[in-house]
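new request in #modeling-help
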Amino acid sequence: MTTEVNVAVRSDAGAAKTRKPLRVALLGFGTVGQAVARILTERDDLRDRLQLTHVFNRGIARKRVDWLSASVVWTEDFDEILESRPDVVVEVVGGVDIPYGWVRQALSQGVSVVTANKLLMAAHAPELLALAATRDARVRFEAAVAGGVPIIDAIRSGLSGDRLTRVVGILNGTCNFILSRMTDGDSMAGALGEAQRLGFAEADPTSDVDGHDAAAKLSLLAGVAFRRYLRTADIPTRSISSIDAVDFRYAKRLGGTIRQLAMAEADGSGGVEASVGPALVDETSSFARNRGAQNLVMVSGRYGGATTFSGEGAGGHPTAVAVVSDLVAISRPGSWQDPGDLVWEPGTVIAARARPYYLRFMVRDRPGIVASITSALSQSDINIDAVLQEPGFPRDRLPFVVTVEPCLATALHAAMQEVESQGFHAEPPVVMPVVPREEHAAQKQ
Amino acid sequence: MTTEVNVAVRSDAGAAKTRKPLRVALLGFGTVGQAVARILTERDDLRDRLQLTHVFNRGIARKRVDWLSASVVWTEDFDEILESRPDVVVEVVGGVDIPYGWVRQALSQGVSVVTANKLLMAAHAPELLALAATRDARVRFEAAVAGGVPIIDAIRSGLSGDRLTRVVGILNGTCNFILSRMTDGDSMAGALGEAQRLGFAEADPTSDVDGHDAAAKLSLLAGVAFRRYLRTADIPTRSISSIDAVDFRYAKRLGGTIRQLAMAEADGSGGVEASVGPALVDETSSFARNRGAQNLVMVSGRYGGATTFSGEGAGGHPTAVAVVSDLVAISRPGSWQDPGDLVWEPGTVIAARARPYYLRFMVRDRPGIVASITSALSQSDINIDAVLQEPGFPRDRLPFVVTVEPCLATALHAAMQEVESQGFHAEPPVVMPVVPREEHAAQKQ
């Protein structure tokens, strides 16, 4: 039983039958590139749509494998790729400047691009999307955000009937792995070491821990969801590196735990409140329940409420599934992009609206510290919600926590500058937003 | 800044600019229909793509509202709709036979259809998809499964690079509301009454509670994920109505809770293991954490692992977002469906593979009951994992639980027939599969 002759729609009638497979060139044959090649080789149902023609890698000789079709050309010469006139180039090399040049060249020739490169796209998305539009080419980058979670396609397609207002996500698997280990009692150093041992974390985990990796991904999600381009450098980040085991003890007392959250909320006129950093989340929330290296994204719209997506954030095969899904999308005859998906207007990162905060101090104890802190807060019109001090800590490194009612970040910043100028700190205070229960929309009953 | 002239791709070059909006006729002006009309009215960015031309309802005079464009024709005559030559008919009426006739008529004339009607699609999807294919029309039904969760589009598009093997979901919000209230200590009757008071449950909740509603949705998910058509009547269902407060007490002792799960797993050659009914799930799983009327679907593939989607399962606005997203998809020039999306080969529901089970007995106590049960189980080569009996129950309605190691449903069925023939039961035993921890894929660490 076949309906191949029947399936094409409108102006593409008949095209499905006569179309040749798209010629796909693969740039990069590391973990992800190999997994892409593996799927394209194994999925015989895709063979009449996608044909891998070239594999590019530095030192290609040592990369060659015997399970790829003999017709595949192995090369370390990018010009050879372009001269072969591929339909799509898959970029899974990494880095920014070199792939930027390649992707520009490909698009300029009308060759579509699928990339897993968040840094490239976060740096150049508006230009690359516009270039693609002028050349009848496509740029897709599902794999650049939350690997195995098809969040970009979901926003553009499955949720296109809504008007999205908010995206909150756990976008960095390494941080989530570390923080969920710490929830279970591990130390920061121990959890980071374990993440490195398991291959989740780089030898230099700065980009993960300090939030720059998640900020690049958040920039892409804001682009797709709000069609506003935020420069990664404009998104305020706070590191999780100052989070200590004691913070999990206090978080638990407050009915929560700690996760690195990337948050973006559109004001409807080009402003986007955006930030990345540790946040106190309710222990019953889907954020708290998201454990290990899993990613999770919650998208909220004016009409449909919150929808949550979770799955593998990285790894060769989940990332390769995202790449192949993009290839399948491009292989559809008459495949088309919404005008709005190709134009990201410049967006402005605006100051956070009033939020409750968690403030943790580590002090050399002496009389008057709490009075000094509460006085600085009250001078900025910030109301204190609770002061918590667990017993059993040494007087020269005494941790305690102040939670405050919703206040503007600017007011809090002013108060904390005053507090930090005092001499009683054994280490700098930790400041985290508290995500109130009602914002854990997927948990409402 | 605009790139409208640049955005059309390939054979549709220029179409975006010259295209007229799709003429949309709305069948049904209840909660969902009104929400669809509301979104189409408020989303001015969709105005050049989608134009609501007709609203059809019985007793249309009392349905008329003043916030819709004066150009909209209000009618209770379906022929008038078809004579107006709409591009798309939105069917949000409900029922099966009457909308089936309408949808067939529309498709036969080449008019595309968007429907929220799970019973219609579960009964007639293969025929309607094939009919649409022969007429260059589309049938989309995102709203028919898990309202606000864009799971159908995600499977067809964002996860198209994977080869899906398994779909497990909480697809009935009423049951989930009831079971999560019972987790918190409510009785079945109390929870059902509350669901009815809040409008989640029908006056006659049979279709929800007994699993027929979820089975129809599971049939559609299996069609989309595996391209195999399962008749709803072939999917075995077990009711949640026999679940008692005591089951939550035992579930808790076993580290879990109870949810109505719809499960489908493809064997790769046309067989699909499928079932709907109460299941014991790990208390840390996303199933257990899914509370209230929320829906949740976990999709697993050979390459990408598990991806989980959750959100509002019903409600006017979330369902309307799904309808409008389908309309937006159809409005894309050159919009195209994969051949495979239009052909669901007949599938066969196959017997469940070996699973662990939870068996709860309610007996009039007398000597030898446990021996009788364990003997029947061992005669079917079923190994007992644990026998649990909580104190404090009357001897004439004494509940206790036996958990067994993985066994085939057929073997269990034989053993339970033997057990049920005994005279000591105060009510029929409850049998539930146990979903092992490793199947809660999204929770792995």
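bot summary: Confidence is low (pLDDT under 50) at residues 1-17 of chain A.
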